[in-house]
Write a structure and sequence with these properties.
heterodimer; A: 846 residues; alpha/beta; seven-stranded mixed beta sheet; 32 strands; B: 171 residues; alpha+beta; five-stranded mixed beta sheet; 5 helices; 5 strands; globular
């Protein structure tokens, strides 16, 4: 029954599915988990208290870069109330989210790479006892040279932060050229070169990471954790604990906010699992807020150089983009992040020739990773601000210029991404109209301004993180004789509403209410694999899997009811918890009776569905990052008021239009849009993960400037502007009921729209984020002095780029392969077989 | 026999009115109200995001006023009344604020929700007809990373209307 779904044959839910209009889909509804949340009954990881539970704390490195010479735990072990002390030698196996960067150890064995890297763990009867015992662990370090930023990483090849990578402290370099950009520049009327810097920032979920592990009565391991990716944690635990994955159960508790920050397998999860197995009792860890800043995996700081050639009418002839990325101390998702800093530039406007070169460096800071918009946020900022500059130079309205060049539906881009529905033009028209753009742009009084920007985002990564041919998401349905339906799925609700998505799809097809549905999600024992809540993939992938499963169940039930009532199946309608003849509605049975009829006819009713994204035409090496079943589009207009005396920027109103395909639950969709706008505003104006050196007379260590919520500024309820949201609903043939993503895309246009609005308000360009009052004052001073009215980076360092892979774009006859790749990409048989996840001993070979 | 570590000794005792119920609790004297609620009284509806008084996630009502419970010592609470999210509903029915938060998407991940709900309750008790600006100000001590706050404001406004209607019907 669990046939792999061919996307071309995907069940295409339409208005006809139920013979009339939708009852659940498209209606603003109370989400299925809302009652638990408003009564405080949602059980987050730290709300789990088990009998005999012990508490764990981690000893973290005070040095940004050092060798561990000696760890003496004897005093801590002797401390009353301490049950166990673990060090690196207890969990030495390396792991990491990406198969090619298995570079983390749950406790560092001989090398610490950032302040906060864990060295030892104490498990004790009370949390405070464990904390006290940390002071009793003696660690001898040999301090190593600190690499504080990518330019230092390029200049200082040794000591190496990692023994792998391209060379020295360069983690990853990529170079791709789609068509001859030199020819493209030759055809241009004007060429623009701009350098931008996007500062790093962090997710700041209000829930601190927490995990509880226990050895089950039968000897297996169960771990509850605040993770967005239970499946990947499952794999990492099997590897590091060297035990069969089949004997490990990972339960992702509802996340108190994720935003990408809980997508890696974490050291603290592995440590409590190890400790629980060793002690045969439950062990909990709950990180402090400071520790959450050290977990990080947040937005990469990126320096960017854009060179763009345009015709007089705004048509782009070519673009060259270089990115230099501060990766922090570990790989994390960094290989993917590196590609993402160049991948999606082609998806908004028609770009005939494109060269992208990206370089990620290791530095001695907490590792960067995926934050909402993963890697695409930074270059989108640069591209959209540069377009604003281009439009001004060409004397074209920036909205009008964008409308001329928007990419069309179903296009294949220069880098071979297959687009589906593209409603960016409509998004632009809507925000232009709603904001009275034409009456405001360049017409507001000094100090007030409006700015416009656009974006696109993935609706799910087209490839899994580890190579395999299996579905990306699976759903099982169980039918109760009382008419109840239970959904089992690995999908993880991090607050975005994925449980509600699954329930609404199943309820709609069966004519039920979402309250009739039970859900068991995010549990590796109970549900089929879903790869996790990242890359905006859950609605389309788990949603399509649910749709397939429920259409299969509906068919069985319809067949049984059809026989019983002697009504052709096509005339049966599922609505109002009944199955009936829509030609004679009184002729029917209740849904519960229908289930019993089906069970009597076919035996126990249970169905499965699964989803695998369509194959991508991007066959070149590196073409695996960026393809998606479809892309969402957004356009935003931001209004700002800038105080010329203080440099303070306030934002009274934002207009945003989002191409969603179809809103399954508009109340939740609006919440995702507004939440993205909010987070984007934080990034635009205040949020930054900043570092400083301690004084020389102290250690001179590179430390986090402010690992606290108070000092890490984020917008509060008084900072939030009015937001006018419009949803563009052209159902996408690839989405369940036509739905596309909304969790990440609407964040992307906010930062560049703010920067463009600041320019409209006071005539200075702030080419980096956050746009702080200090930077505005500096730019205003430049303006006053008659120099370039700008604040931003002035140079891009020389990076030793490799020769670019040359991939002719579709319109130059390209077939998706590189013409100069010596390792021409056809996945070898050996590579295909390299992952054997079902092997009984859980040895993951890559 | 080894000595019990200090932090394991439940030498402090208080009696408080927790959600309308007289409650005795013994605990280690260093503990905060937040820790007592979650660890000694099993009331995990109250959350924590920093334990430094910065995020507002642990707000409860102490004598009817919102406080960040991570900054209140348990021993200070003897004889006082505490209201947490668990005590908001009456007779099995949700409070109008809870209804509105659930219906209007004001709770996404739900982690800051209990604190915002009790804060909003205290605020509406004092200000039955607040403006949007007053609501913004009243909730500014609680950080929410999911919603962008707007649906929270709308939910408070809807609850305000519902509460006023109930008062009218009751009067």
């Amino acid at each position: 029954m669990a046939n792999q779904q061919d996307h071309k044959n995907a069940p295409m839910a339409t208005e006809q599915t139920n013979g009339s209009e939708f009852r659940v889909i498209g209606k603003s509804r109370r989400r299925v988990d809302a009652r638990a949340k408003v009564t405080g009954q949602t059980r987050y990881a730290d709300d789990i208290f088990l009998p005999r539970m012990a508490y764990c704390k981690l000893l973290r490195s005070p040095h940004p870069h050092a060798r561990i010479l000696k760890v003496d735990t004897s005093r801590a072990e002797a401390h009353p109330g301490v049950y166990l002390v673990l060090t690196g030698k207890d969990v030495p196996i390396e792991y990491g989210i990406i198969p090619v960067s298995q570079d983390e150890q749950a406790l560092c064995v001989d090398h610490v790479r950032h302040v906060g890297d864990p060295v030892a763990a104490v498990v004790a009867r009370e949390e405070l006892t464990a904390t006290e015992a940390l002071d009793l662990i003696d660690v001898e370090y040999e301090i190593l040279t600190t690499i504080s930023d990518p330019e230092e990483a390029l200049a200082i090849p040794a000591p190496r932060i990692h023994e792998y990578g391209e060379e020295g402290n360069i983690h990853k370099r990529v170079a791709l050229e789609f068509g001859s950009v030199d020819e493209g520049f030759a055809e241009a009327d004007k060429i623009f070169e701009d350098t931008f810097f996007y500062q790093g920032n962090t997710h700041l979920p209000i829930e601190q990471h927490a995990a509880v592990a226990t050895k089950d009565p039968d000897g297996k391991l169960t771990i509850w954790s605040s993770t967005q990716t239970p499946h990947y944690l499952h794999r990492a635990l099997a590897k590091v604990l060297d035990m069969p994955a089949a004997h490990i159960r990972v339960i992702a508790t509802p996340n108190g906010g994720g935003f990408g920050g809980k997508s890696d397998p974490f050291n603290h999860e592995i440590v409590v699992a190890k400790a629980a197995l060793r002690l045969d009792r439950p062990v909990k860890i709950s990180l402090t807020r400071e520790e959450v800043f050290y977990c990080h995996r947040g937005r990469h700081p990126v320096l960017m150089k854009f060179k763009t050639g345009v015709k007089k009418d705004g048509t782009i002839t070519a673009m060259d983009l270089q990115t230099l990325i501060d990766g922090g101390a570990y790989g994390s998702y960094g290989v993917a992040s590196t590609f993402y800093t160049g991948a999606l530039q082609t998806t908004t406007y028609h770009l005939p020739r494109y060269r992208f070169r990206g370089c990620r460096a290791f530095t001695n800071k907490p590792p960067c990773g995926p934050k909402r918009g993963h890697g695409t946020v930074q270059p989108r900022f640069g591209q959209e601000v540069q377009l604003d500059k281009i439009a001004e130079k060409l004397a074209i309205d920036p909205a009008e210029m964008r409308l001329r060049i928007v990419e069309s539906s179903n296009a294949v881009t220069a880098n071979f991404f297959q687009l589906s529905t593209v409603n960016l033009g409509e998004c632009i028209r809507r925000v232009v109209k709603a904001s009275s753009w034409n009456d405001r742009f360049r017409k507001l009084p000094e100090g007030r301004g409006v700015g416009l920007a656009c974006s696109a985002y993935l609706t799910g990564a087209g490839l899994p993180i580890y190579w395999n041919k299996m579905p990306h998401s699976g759903v099982q349905l169980k039918f109760d004789r009382g008419g109840g339906v239970t959904i089992f799925c690995g999908a993880t609700d991090i607050g975005q509403g994925s449980d509600d998505v699954l329930a609404s799809i199943v309820a709609e097809v069966l004519g039920l209410e979402t309250f009739d549905i039970r859900l068991y999600t995010g549990d590796t024992d109970l549900g089929p694999v879903d790869l996790g809540s990242y890359s905006s993939r859950v609605t389309i992938m788990a949603g399509n899997a649910a749709l397939q499963a429920v259409e299969r169940a509906r068919a069985l039930i319809a067949e049984a009811v059809s026989e019983k009532l002697d009504v052709p199946q096509e005339r049966l309608r599922f609505a109002d918890k009944r199955v009936f003849d829509f030609a004679a509605p009184e002729k029917g049975v209740t849904f519960a009776e229908a289930v019993c009829l089906a069970e009597g006819r076919f035996g126990t009713i249970g169905t499965v569905g699964s989803y695998t994204p369509p194959k991508s035409p991007a066959l070149y090496k590196g073409g695996g990052v960026g393809p998606s079943p479809t892309y969402s589009y957004s356009a935003a207009v931001v209004e700002v008021e800038v105080n010329p005396v203080t440099g303070w920027v306030s934002v009274p109103k934002i207009w945003i239009a989002h191409d969603i395909g179809r809103a399954l639950n508009p109340a939740l969709v609006r919440g995702q849009v507004e939440g993205s706008v909010y987070m984007g505003l934080g990034e635009a104006l205040m949020e930054e993960q900043e570092f400083r050196r301690l004084p020389k007379k102290l250690s001179h260590a590179l430390v986090h400037k402010f690992p606290s919520i108070l000092e890490y500024k984020s917008p509060t309820s008084v900072d939030m502007p009015e937001v006018f949201t419009e949803l563009i609903e052209e159902p996408d043939p690839r989405g369940p009921f036509g739905a596309k993503e909304v969790g990440q895309g609407p964040l992307l246009p906010i930062m560049p729209a703010v920067a463009n609005a600041v320019y409209d308000a006071i005539g200075v360009r702030i080419d980096e984020v956050p746009i702080t009052p200090e930077k505005i004052m500096k730019a205003l001073a430049e303006k006053k002095a008659g120099r370039e009215p700008r604040f931003g980076p002035s140079h891009f360092p020389a990076v030793p780029w490799p020769e670019a892979l040359r991939i002719p774009p579709p319109w130059e006859g390209g077939d998706g392969n590189a013409v100069n790749d010596p390792r021409a990409r056809k996945p070898k048989a050996a590579e295909r077989e390299a992952v054997d996840y079902t092997a009984t001993h859980g040895k993951v070979l890559r | 026999m080894i000595t019990l570590p200090t932090e394991s000794q439940k030498t402090a005792h208080i009696r408080l009115n927790l959600n309308g119920e007289q409650t005795d609790v013994s605990f280690a004297p260093y503990k905060t109200l937040l820790e007592i609620l979650r660890e000694d009284l099993g009331h995990t509806g109250t959350k924590h995001g920093c334990e430094l008084g910065e995020c507002g996630a642990c707000a409860v009502l102490l004598e009817g006023k919102p406080v960040v419970s991570c900054l209140v010592l348990g021993v200070e609470c003897d004889g006082k009344s505490v209201l947490t999210v668990e005590g908001m509903g009456t007779d099995g029915a949700l409070h109008p604020l809870q209804e509105a938060f659930a219906d209007l998407g004001a709770a996404q991940c739900g982690y800051c929700t209990p604190a915002i709900l009790v804060t909003a309750k205290a605020f509406l008790d004092e200000h039955p007809q607040p403006s949007r600006e007053q609501i913004r100000e009243a909730l500014s001590g609680s950080l929410c990373r999911c919603t962008g706050y707007l649906q929270i404001f709308e939910a408070v406004e809807e609850a305000m209307v519902k509460i006023a209607e109930r008062r009218k019907t009751a009067a």
